[in-house]
Structure formats: C-alpha cells, structure tokens
Amino acid sequence: MSNGTELPGRHGDPPGAPRPELLRVEVHESRPGVVVVSPFGEVDVSSADLLRDATHEALTTAGRGVVVDLGGVTFCGSTGLVVLIDAQQRADEAGVRFRTAAGPPIVRRVLDITRLGPVLHHSDTVAEALDDLVTGSSV
To answer: Name one Pfam family in it (predicted).
Structure first.
C-alpha cells in the first residue's frame, strides 16, 4: 500500500462504491402504528443508504413506534451503527418510540462492545421489542 492509494472494498470495488445487492430491506406494519424494518444481508458503507431510507420512511409513517429487526443482518459495520443511532435520534425528535431487536451473535457482540444496545433499546427478540412498544415500559 502506498500513500494516497485507496484499497478496493471487501468485494473488489472501490471503497464506498454503492453495493445495494448486499442488502435487502423489508418493511411492514406489525401492529397498528408500529412498523418493523427488517434488513437482510450486510450493512456497511456501500449498502447503508437502503437501511437509512427505510428507517426514515418508517419513522414518518409509524404513529407509535419502529422496530429494526436485526435477525437477518450478517454484517454491521460502523456506518450501519451510525444509521441506527441516527434513526434513534430522529425517532426521539418525532416522538416515535424506537427499538432494535434480535440479531446473530456477531451483531449482538458489536452492540455489546460499543455499548449501543441500551442506547438503541435493544431486545433479544422482535416480540419483546413489540411488547415494549405497546406497553410503553421504557422510552
């Protein structure tokens, strides 16, 4: 590596090149006023805009709350964490409750190491996050 040279991304593309095929995001209303955003795949600098757009849209349509189900995420880089923190902040500003839930061990480990689990009101399961939103047990 020489100074001033960018290394290819993990898949041989230039760093930051959009790679939306790495991520698919599904959105549905789980309960009245509660939207679940479910990303599937890798959330990194090249795919994070898909998740960002989906969470922003969910926050504008949800009356009560948004849950991001991390169960289908196979990788979450720092950009993915920034997207989740941004969504939490936007939810606070809009008066909408926000939760993250589930996730494979690698994603849960990242939330533990960064201490973002409590910030994102992370639950072990989507059902727990939905129940929390409906009962209003924590903000």
So the answer is: STAS
102: left (phi over 0), alpha (psi -120 to 50) or beta: left
Closest alpha carbon to 94 in 120, 118, 119, 66: 66
Judged by DSSP in three states, 72 sits in strand
pTM greater than the 0.70 cutoff: yes
Spatial contact of 22 and 44, defined as CB atoms under 8 Å apart: yes
- pLDDT tens-digit readout, 71-93: 999 999 999 999 999 999 999 99
The answer to whether residue 15 is domain-embedded is no
Please state, in angstroms and as integers, the Cα–Cα distance from residue 106 to each residue in 67, 69, 87, following that order.
19, 14, 21
Q: Which two tokens stand for residue 62?
A: 């949800």
Whole domain around residue 90: which residue ranges?
A: 20-135
Helix (H) or strand (E) segment spanning residue 65: strand 65-69
Question: Distance between CA 24 and CA 69 in Å, rounded?
Answer: 13
